[in-house]
Automatic annotation (TrEMBL):
PANTHER family linked to this entry: NUCLEOTIDE KINASE
Domain (Adenylate kinase active site lid): residue spans on this chain: 155-190
GO MF annotation list: AMP kinase activity; ATP binding
Family to which the UniProt record says this protein belongs: Belongs to the adenylate kinase family.
Protein name: adenylate kinase
Function description: Catalyzes the reversible transfer of the terminal phosphate group between ATP and AMP. Plays an important role in cellular energy homeostasis and in adenine nucleotide metabolism.
Gene that this sequence comes from: LOC123167186
Listed HAMAP family: Adenylate_kinase_Adk
Cellular component aspect of the GO annotation: cytoplasm; mitochondrion
Length: 241
């Protein structure tokens, strides 16, 4: 249910009108982010989203939203999940298709976490082709496994605030405790060398062929994801300009 516009503060209305005016001159873009866990996709995607007025489609979040909203596709997805099965590629592509019809996706989208396999990439291409659209750019967050291991296994989190630290790059004042509250820091279950190793193996096996698939069409821009975030942002802007 849309809010009654009379109740929306003028500043918010004007801000939104100005945002849409600025966005109307931006070219449409459909961008895929590919990269292993910890490669910095999460840092860059909000910047890309704002700069090009795109919607951010994270397939995991979209699946959960479709299930919660009990859309026809969401109901099918929930059935699969309840049986402990993987949600089929066709279902995920259908949910992306549905999401793309939202006004916020008018200028295009950033897809993160999909496609993970060549079959998914082909299905995505077919779905876009039916709409007369195509993928414009694939940003490959290329980074050495050893650098990722250092990045990820050094991460420590303060659970209640979400503040994050890194033993090497952003250490807390006192090892193992939060600067603000003095409470102990924890490591996420996923942030261990063992878990990272299996996630990286899956990434190299399944997703690297996706990079080759899009490279054949000249769509891939390889980023130096080991660089500091600001430098990666500059590379992203060059790749998308």
């Amino acid at each position: 249910m849309a809010a009654n516009l009379e109740d929306v503060p003028s500043v918010d209305l004007i801000t939104e009108v100005l945002r849409r005016a600025k966005c109307s001159s931006k070219p449409d873009k459909r961008i895929i982010l590919v990269g292993p866990p910890g490669s910095g996709k999460g840092t860059q995607s909000p910047l890309i989203k704002d700069e090009y007025c795109l919607c951010h489609l994270a397939t995991g979040d979209m699946l959960r939203a479709a299930v919660a909203a009990k859309t026809p596709l969401g109901i099918k997805a929930k059935e699969a999940m309840n049986k402990g099965e993987l949600v089929s590629d066709d279902l995920v592509v259908g949910i992306i298709d549905e999401a793309m019809k939202k006004p916020s996706c008018q200028k295009g989208f950033i897809l993160d976490g999909f496609p993970r396999t060549v079959v998914q990439a082909q299905k995505l291409d077919d779905m876009l082709a039916k709409q007369g659209a195509k993928v414009d750019k694939v940003l490959n967050f290329a980074i050495d496994d050893a650098i990722l291991e250092e990045r990820i296994t050094g991460r420590w989190i303060h659970p209640s605030s979400g503040r994050s630290y890194h033993t090497k790059f952003a250490p807390p004042k006192t090892p193992g405790v939060d600067d603000v509250t003095g409470e102990p820091l924890i490591q996420r279950k996923d942030d261990t060398a063992v878990v990272l190793k299996s996630r990286l193996e899956a990434f190299h096996m399944q997703t690297e062929p996706v990079i080759d698939y899009y490279s054949k069409n000249g769509l891939v821009a390889n980023l130096h994801a080991e660089k500091p975030p600001k430098e990666v942002t500059v590379e992203v802007q060059k790749a998308l300009s």
